[in-house]
C-alpha cells in the first residue's frame, strides 16, 4: 500500500495523537524508540486547548456574574455587574497556550528516545503510516489516539461566523446575538457561558434537550436554562441566509431568527476516516469509531491486530477525558505486557474494566449522572426502585433558596446496589462521587448513610437523605 518512495523510518512505538496519548511515554518505556505524531492546531489535544479545561475557565466567571444577578432573592443588593470577554479570554489562553507550547517544546527536543512528527498521517499498512509530506513511518507497536472533531451541519458549514467549539472561546469579540445549535453538553455549556457574558443566546435543537438523560433531569434543565437564554427544542433549521449583519435562519415552524453568529454543537465525529483506518481493514462501529476489545486492542475481522491499540474518542462510546485517560493507562500497561509475552515471559494483558462512567455538564444548572434511569433499569430486567431528594428538602437547599434541584437514585431492590444516580443542581459533579464510589465497588446502600458522619448542614446531606429514602424503599 506504500505509495511513497521515501526511506522507511523505523520505530518501536508510534503514538498517533498527543492528547491523552501524550501521557503514554513513561520512564518504563525509555528503552523504546518512540514517535509521537500530531497535526493539531495546538499541541496537547482537545481537553487542554479547546475542551474541558478552557470551557470550565469560562464557566466560572459566567457563573459568578449569574449568581450576583440572582442574589436579589437572598437579600443581596448589587449594582449592575458585567464581564469583559477579551480580558477573560486572554487570561484563559494566557495560561493555557504556554502550557501547550512548553509541552510541544519538551516533546520536540526534551528526550533522546522521542521524535515529534507534526504532520497528518494515514495508515498505509497495518504497522505503517505515511505523512502528508510523504515520510513513511513503521513500528512494531502503534497507539491510535486520534480523537474526534466537531460535526459540521450541511445547512450551515463552518466559516467566520459559523463556528465550532474549537473557535468558540477564541472569538475576537463576543457577538450580541448568537444561535447555539445542539441539545447536548457542548451546546448547554456554551449557552450558559455566552449568556453569562451578556450575549442574547437562542439554543436550537431538533429534539428535546439531553434526550439520552433521565426525563426529569432533561425537563428541569430546559426549564431552568430558559431563565437565562432562549431554548427552542423540537425545531430544525431549514434554511440559512447570510446577511450583512450575520445570518437569517429559517426554522421548521416557518419562523425566522436573526443572529450575528452561530455555534454548531451537534456532536463529534471520530477521526478514523482521517487516519484511513477503514482502508487497512480495521473494524469500526456504526458511528465510525474503531472497534477495540477489552484490552484496547484494535480489531480486524473481529480479531485483535497484534501491536495496534486505540484509546479515547477515536474508539470509545464515551467522548470524555476521564475515560480517555483511563484507556491510556490500560494501553500503557498492555504495550509492555504484549512485548513481554512476545519474548516468552510470563505476562498478561490488563482488561479495561472500570465501573459506571460519570457524565457531568458544567452549565447553568449543572448536571451529574451515571448509570441507568428507572425505565432503563426495568427494561434491562432489574427489580429496581427510584427515590428523589430535592435540594430544597435540606438545610443547604434552604440556604440556596433552591426550588429546582434534586438527586434521583435508582437502586436494585435485592442487592441494594446503585444502578443509577441523576443529580441536577449546584455542585452536582462533586455530590455524585460518593454514589459513584459505592456503585463502582458494588457496595450495597444498606447502612451507607448511617455508617458514617455527614457534616451538617453541608450539601452532602442531599446524598445522605437520598440514601436513607432508598434504604427505606428497598426494605418495603
Ligand atoms: C468543548 C468541549 C468541552 C469538553 N469538556 C469536557 C469535560 O468537561 N469533561 C470531560 O471529561 N470531557 C470533556 N470534553 C471531551 C474531551 O475533551 C475529550 O473526550 C478528550 O479530550 C479526548 O481525548 P483524546 O486523547 O481521545 O483526543 P484528542 O485530545 O482530541 O487528541 C487527538 C489528537 O490526534 C490528532 N490527530 C487526529 N488525526 C490525526 C492524523 N490523521 N494525523 C496526525 N494527528 C492526528 C489531533 O490533532 C489531536 O491533537 C470536552 C470536549 C469539548 C469539545
Ligand atoms: N462536561 C463534559 O463532560 C463535556 C463537555 C463538552 C463536551 N463533552 C463531550 O463532547 C462530546 C460532543 O458534545 P456535543 O454536545 O457536541 O454532542 P452531544 O452528542 O452531547 O449532543 C449532540 C446534539 O446535537 C443534536 N444533533 C445531532 N445531529 C444533528 C443535526 N444533524 N442537526 C441538528 N441537531 C443535531 C443532537 O440531537 C444532540 O442534542 C460529548 O459526547 C461529550 O462527551 C463533554
Which homologous superfamily in CATH is the superfamily of the largest domain?
FAD/NAD(P)-binding domain
What distance lies between the first and last C-alpha atoms, to the nearest angstrom? 66 Å
Q: What is the CATH class of the largest domain? A: Alpha Beta
Number of strands: 23
CATH topology type of the largest domain: FAD/NAD(P)-binding domain
What is the global morphology?
A: globular
Average the pLDDT over all residues and give the rounded result. 96
Radius of gyration: 24 Å
Please identify the structural class as seen in this structure.
alpha/beta
CATH architecture of the largest domain: 3-Layer(bba) Sandwich
GO molecular function, one term: mycothione reductase [NAD(P)H] activity
Family: Belongs to the class-I pyridine nucleotide-disulfide oxidoreductase family.
Domain Pyridine nucleotide-disulphide oxidoreductase dimerisation: 357-466
Keywords: Disulfide bond, FAD, Flavoprotein, NAD, Nucleotide-binding, Oxidoreductase, Redox-active center
